[in-house]
Amino acid sequence: MAGRPSDTEILEAVEAHAGRRGVAGRLTDPGAAALTWTILLDFRIVRSLETRGERPMREPGSRDDIANRPTYTVLDSHPVPPPDGPEQARSRLLVREGSLDEERCADCDGGTNKCGPCRGRGVLDCPRFVDCPVCEAGPDACWECEGTGRPRSRKPPRPRAGTSAADRAARVRCARCRIDDVACPKCRGRRQLDCPDCRKSGQVECTACSGTKRVTHPECRGTGRFTVWTEGWIRHTPHRARERRPGRADLRRATGNTGDWHENVLRRTTDKLPDDLDESDEALIAPHLTPRKNEVARRATLRRLPLAQVRVHADPHRDYFAFPSRTGIEVVSRPTSERVRYFAAVASPRSRWSW
């Protein structure tokens, strides 16, 4: 792989890093260190898949925008360029040639129909009178005649039990029996009031048609006609896949931030993978490169970083990891996996009581 440091360069960089930690010795000497290589891998592919279809369309009114759409004869063979980038979702709407037409709405008369709630009269029936909200059209309308106009006696009326002086003072002359200080002040003993909506006329304007006697036909939206056509649609939809070999979890931030990853971009189905991949890498990636049905564009990005693991015999409890960075060779050290497991076992509650 281009850009991969030599074993000697790696050992010299690890030697300098270990020396700052107090570990002496030349790692390039035989038997001083053991070095193994691995490849960190990040593969991503996004491909654009195309689907096509037809459907009958019917929209209210005259649609000038439909007339301005591109037309086609045979949808399957209609040429459409792929999107500039496979990650773009795109939809194209077409009109089959000769299918665009207008038809009259059969369920209305020029876009309107007779109003149903008022039956085309423009008005609705309304009660001429409403119950008095104060006495509720009951006996309290008048303490003497109870709203009938026939007083019970010609003696002065007696206030009802439980009424206060203020209530008695609020009573007025009854409009029916003509006796003073006995009637409801709102209806004056009549029990009812003139309807405030129709003003005693018995009719109010229809709210559905606003008095016009006709309403707009909702299906054709008042146009009285429909535009009909056969619509063809072509969609480009992105589909993504990914494979990773990120390595140890405690190294991912260091390698991701400073590592000099080598990148290859494959844009055609005939593009080949780099020759320096091993068989396991190819087996991981190759299935994703198989062309899919209706694939019209793709971009596959393969990023790789060589990572060297160095075990220094003079420092047996730490592993050193080295990889190319943008400024040279980066070296980080971590406790060995055996050391991590040992301390985990010591720290567990079960191990403290095992004696």
Give an overview in words.
With 355 residues, the chain is an alpha+beta fold. The protein is 16% helix and 34% strand. The chain is built from 7 helices and 15 strands. It has helices spanning 7-20, 64-67, 165-170, 252-258, 279-289, 337-347, 349-352, and strands spanning 33-60, 71-72, 90-96, 101-104, 112-114, 123-125, 129-131, 192-194, 203-205, 214-216, 225-245, 262-266, 295-312, 318-325, 328-335. Strands 1, 2, 3, 4, 11, 12, 13, 14 and 15 form a 9-stranded mixed beta sheet that branches. The longest helix is centred in the N-terminal third of the chain and has 14 residues, at 7-20. The chain is elongated and about 135 Å long. The mean pLDDT is 90.
Number of helices: 7
Number of strands: 15
Radius of gyration: 46 Å
Largest sheet: 9 strands, mixed
Report strand %. Answer: 25-35%
| End-to-end C-alpha gap | 53 Å
Helix content: 10-25%
Would you tell me the overall average pLDDT?
A: 90
Which regions contain 5 or more consecutive residues with pLDDT less than 50? Answer: none
Q: Shape from CA axes?
A: elongated
Give me the secondary-structure category.
alpha+beta
Compressed to H and E, one letter per element, the order equals HEHEEEEEEHEEEEHEHEEEHH
